[in-house]
Amino acid sequence: MTAPDSSDNQPGAPQPTALLDAADQALSRADIAAATELLDQVAVLTQSRVERLRLRLGEGRLDSAGGRHRSALTTFETVIAEADAVGGPDAAVISTAARIEMIRLALRSGRVQLATQAASGINVVDSPLTTIFMTAVEVGAGNRDAAAGLDAVADAVLVAEGPGASGTIAETAGLALVWAEHYDAADRLLARLGRLARRDGDRVALPSLLAVQSLADLRTSRYRAAAAAAAEAITLADASAQPGLAVLPAAVLAVAEAIRGDADGCRAAAQRLTEDAVRNGATNAGADVPARAALGLLHLGLGEPEQAVAHLEPLLGRAEGTPWLVMWQMDLAEAFVRAGRGEDARALVDRFLDLPGSTGHDRVHAAGARVKAMLTDDIDQAEALLDQSELTLRRIGSPFGLGRTLLVRGIIRRAKGDETSSLSDLVHAETVLRSVGAEGWAAQALDAQASPSGVTVQPLAVSPTLLTPQELQVAGLVAGGRSNREVADLLFLSTRTVESHLGRIYRKLGINSRTKLIARAHEWGLDAHSW
After folding, report:
1. Alpha-carbon distance 12 to 102, whole Å?
2. Do residues 358 and 439 both lie within one domain?
3. Which candidate among 10, 332, 374, 463 keeps its CA 20 to 30 Å from the CA of 61?
4. Percent of the chain with pLDDT over 90
5. What is the CB-side half-sphere exposure of residue 22 using CA atoms within 13 A?
6. Does one domain contain both 408 and 296?
7. Which of 118, 150, 174 finishes a domain?
8. C-alpha dihedral, 133 to 202 to 75 to 98, nearest 10°
9. Residues 289, 62: Cα–Cα separation, whole Å
10. Is 313 a domain residue?
11. Quick one: 299 and 433 in the same domain?
12. Last residue in a domain, options 398, 416, 448
C-alpha cells in the first residue's frame, strides 16, 4: 500500500512539514496555544508516514507539558513502535526523539526504570546531548560514578545547542549531578544556566532549572531555599501552561514543608501531587510516592508514627529502589519502630539496604544504622551504630540526618541512665534541627531534654515567621555574607529585586542595616549553612 503524500493537499495551502516545523518551534518556546493550533491544522491534512509520526510526537509533547503523563507515555510508545516498523533514517530520528521525551518525563518524576527502558532502545550515542541523557539514566539507576565529568559534557551541549537547551541540560545533567551528590558542580551548572535563562526570559528553561535547583537545595538541607525555588518553579510552570513541569517542584515543596513542620504547606503540595496522579490514572505506578513520602515524614516529625505508617506503608511493593527524593523506606522503618512494629522495621531495613542502588550510598547506610540502633537491645551496639551514622552524616554534610541521629542517641542514652551525655546530644540535636528549620523535629528534641530531675534547656529562637519563603532565602544568604549581586545570581533575580526584598526584611524585623541582620542571624535561625 502506498503511503499518503502531502502533495495531495490543496495547492498553495501550508504543507504538513512546514506546519510541523512551526509547531516544534512553538513547543521549544513554550507557546502551547500556538503549538496546539498548528498540530490541529496538520491533523486535517493528508500526511506522509513520517509526517504522521511527527504529528503524534508533537501531541505527546503537548500531553507531557500539560501534565497528562499517562497519555504522553502511551503516545511516545506508539510513535516508537510505528517508527521502528517504518524504518529509514527519518523514522529513526523520530524514534530516538520519542525515547528522549520518555526519558525526560521519567527522570522528572523519578521513574528510573521507565527511563532505563526507554534508553535501552537508543543504539548510538552520537552527540553530547544524547550522552547526558544516557548518563542521567545510568546515575539514576545507581551508578553515581557515571556523573564524573558530566558538567564538562553539559558545557559542550550548551555550546553546540545554544542557551535554548538550558532546560534540557538542567533536568538531565543537573539532575544527575544532584543524584550523584556532586552538589558543588550542580550548583555551578545551574547558576550558569539560570543566568542565561533569566537574561533570555526563557519560559521553558526556568521552571526546569528552578525545579532541579530546589531538589539540590533539598538534598543539601537548604530547606527554606528549596521551598522558595520550588514555589517559583510551580508558578512559572502554571503560568506557561506547562503543569507537567510542576511535578518535581511540587514534590520538593511537599517534602521541604514536611521537614519544616509546615503542615498546611505540606498538605497543599501533597494534595496537588495526588490530584495530578489521580487525573492521570497513575497512582498504581508510584506517581503518588512523593505525596505519601512527604506526609509520612510530616507525621513522623510531629511525633505521630501511626499516621506516618498509614501514609507510607501502602508504598511497599510499588516503589522500591534507591529514592530519588526522600528515603521513605527508612522513614517507614523508623515509624514502624515507634509504633511498636519492630519486626516489620527490621525486615524493611534489611531488604532496602540489599537493593542494588543502595550499595555504597552513604546517606542510605547512615539512615539504616540509625534505625538498626533503635531496634537493638544491646546499648553498646546501638552506640556503635549511631556513632557510625553520626560520622557519615557529618562527613557528607547532612544536618537534618545528623539532627535525627543525635536525637535518637540522646533518647537511648537517657534510657541507659547517662544523663549528661543524653542532654548534650539532645541540645545539640535541637540546635542542628532548628538551624535548618526542622521545627517539628527540634520540638521533639526539646521535649526529650526534660530529665527526671527536672533539668530543661531553653529552646533557641525560631526563624522570623513574618518573612515569605523568598524573603527568608534572601535574608539567609545575606546573613551568610553574600553581596546583593551574588544573591541575585544564586536566586536568578535582578539586583533591584534583591534590594526590594531586603527593604521589606528590614522593616519586618525592626532593623535598619545589613550589619544588624548579620549580627542577629543566629537568633532568627538564619544559619548560612541552611542556604
Report:
1. 36
2. yes
3. 10
4. 31
5. 16
6. yes
7. 118
8. -30
9. 24
10. yes
11. yes
12. 448
Alpha-carbon span 408 to 389, nearest angstrom: 11
The phi and psi torsions of 511 (rounded to 5 degrees) equal: -125, 175
The domain of 361 spans 292-448
Residue entry with cell 508510584: 286
* Residue 264 CB-density burial (10 A; 0-12 exposed, 13-18 middle, 19+ buried): exposed
Question: Residue 11, Cβ neighbours under 10 Å: how many?
Answer: 5
Are 41 and 12 within one domain?
yes
Q: How far apart are CA 289 and CA 280, in angstroms?
A: 14
Q: Check if the beta carbon of residue 361 is closer than 8 Å to that of residue 322.
A: yes
Alpha helices (H) in 302-378, listed in sequence order: 305-312, 328-338, 342-353, 362-375
Alpha-carbon distance of 177 to 197, in angstroms, equals 19
pLDDT at 519 over 90: no
> Residue 176 domain-assigned?
no
Q: Which three cell numbers stand for residue 114?
A: 521507565
Domain assignment of residue 80, yes or no: yes
* Angstrom distance (rounded) from CA 325 to CA 47: 43
Q: What is the CATH number of the domain that holds 520?
A: 1.10.10.10
Measured CA to CA, the distance from residue 400 to residue 387 in angstroms comes to: 16
Contact 327, 371 (CB under 8 A): no
Dump pLDDT digits (tens) for 127-174.
Answer: 777 888 888 888 877 788 888 888 888 888 888 888 888 888 998 899
Enter the pTM of the model.
0.74
Estimate to the nearest angstrom the gap between the alpha carbon of 443 and the chain centroid.
Answer: 26
- Distance, in Å, from the CA atom of 513 to the CA atom of 244, rounded to the nearest integer, reads 42
29-86 pLDDT, tens digit each: 778 889 999 999 999 988 899 999 999 999 999 988 887 878 888 999 999 999 999 8
Asked if 418 and 305 sit in the same domain, the reply is yes
Please check whether residue 270 is in contact with residue 256, taking contact to mean a CB–CB distance below 8 angstroms.
Answer: no
In angstroms, how far is CA 279 from the centroid of its own chain?
21
Q: What is the mean pLDDT of the chain?
A: 83
C-alpha cell at 504: 521589606
What is the per-residue pLDDT across 368-425, written as a single tens digit (0 to 9) for each? 999 999 999 898 899 999 999 999 998 888 889 999 999 999 999 888 888 888 888 9
Domain count, the chain: 3
Query: Both 20 and 80 in a single domain?
Result: yes
N-term to C-term CA, the chain: 63
CA-wise closest residue to 220 among 188, 178, 189, 270: 178
User: Does the pLDDT of residue 485 top 70, yes or no?
Assistant: yes
CATH code of the domain in which 444 resides: 1.25.40.10
